[in-house]
Design brief:
Number of domains: 1
Strand content: 15-25%
Strand order of the largest sheet: 3-2-4-1-5-6-7
Largest sheet: 7 strands, parallel
Helix content: 25-40%
Structural class: alpha/beta
CATH class: Alpha Beta
CATH topology: Rossmann fold
CATH architecture: 3-Layer(aba) Sandwich
Shape: globular
Oligomer: single chain
Order of helices and strands: HEHEHEHEEHHEHEH
Radius of gyration: 17 Å
């Protein structure tokens, strides 16, 4: 007899994700799930983003990591309400973790919630967290073939941040190949080339966030 364990896990997660989605919608919170491989630059991009937007909107961040509070400490230095979620070995966040985290922050004061997922190009794409948008990051040192090798991540993303473009002169990376292959997987994908190191392109990304936040409040 076959027992569909994986299906059951995903079904339970989906039920909780629906509860989270209702919670975020009731409070008009724009929620974004940020996903990438380790070291792609999610935390540094978030630091730039928070510093640019912190006087325009109230932003909270759930920091997902297997261990440590390193990234949460960096994010909290921007003044954003920050909560660490340690998975203790799991390669992704799930809805139960996020639902529990909402009990430990002031949900009434939030305009935007970032959920920085555990660094992994595979597992996070499987689990709905009740988010409105999924933001994928790809950094130049990872190679320009990642949309073809890990299509589900890019298929489900709403926005792709191609990070570390300051390294373009030094790496054999074809950014047009990434755009073409990612768009062939997901023709609705919005792509922003950015540099977490220099801040290049971050303002364009923040403009997208401003519009998405304004649309949520209508």
């Amino acid at each position: 007899m076959k027992i569909p364990v994986v299906r059951k896990i995903l079904e339970v997660n989906e039920q909780m994700a629906e509860d989270l989605q209702s919670l975020f919608q009731e409070r008009n919170i724009l929620t974004l799930n940020m996903m990438s491989s380790p070291g792609a630059g999610k935390t540094t991009i978030l630091e730039h983003t928070l510093n640019l937007l912190k006087y325009e909107m109230n932003i909270a961040v759930f920091e997902g990591d297997i261990q440590t509070t390193n990234d949460a400490e960096r994010i909290s230095n921007t003044g954003a309400q920050t909560l660490q979620i340690n998975t203790d070995g799991a390669c992704h966040l799930d809805s139960s973790m996020v639902l529990e985290a909402t009990n430990h922050i002031n949900m009434e004061s939030i305009d935007v919630l970032f959920i920085e997922n555990v660094g992994n190009l595979v597992c996070p794409a499987e689990f709905n967290l009740g988010e409105e948008y999924r933001i994928a990051l790809l950094s130049l040192p990872e190679g320009d073939d990642k949309p073809e090798k890990y299509p589900k991540m890019f298929m489900q993303a709403d926005v792709l941040l191609v990070n570390k473009i300051d390294l373009l002169p030094y790496l054999d990376f074809d950014i047009e190949r990434v755009k073409k292959s990612a768009k062939s997987i997901n023709h609705d994908l919005t792509i922003f080339p950015v540099s977490a190191r220099t801040g290049e392109g971050v303002e364009e990304w923040c403009n997208w966030l401003r519009k998405a936040s304004a649309a949520r409040k209508k």
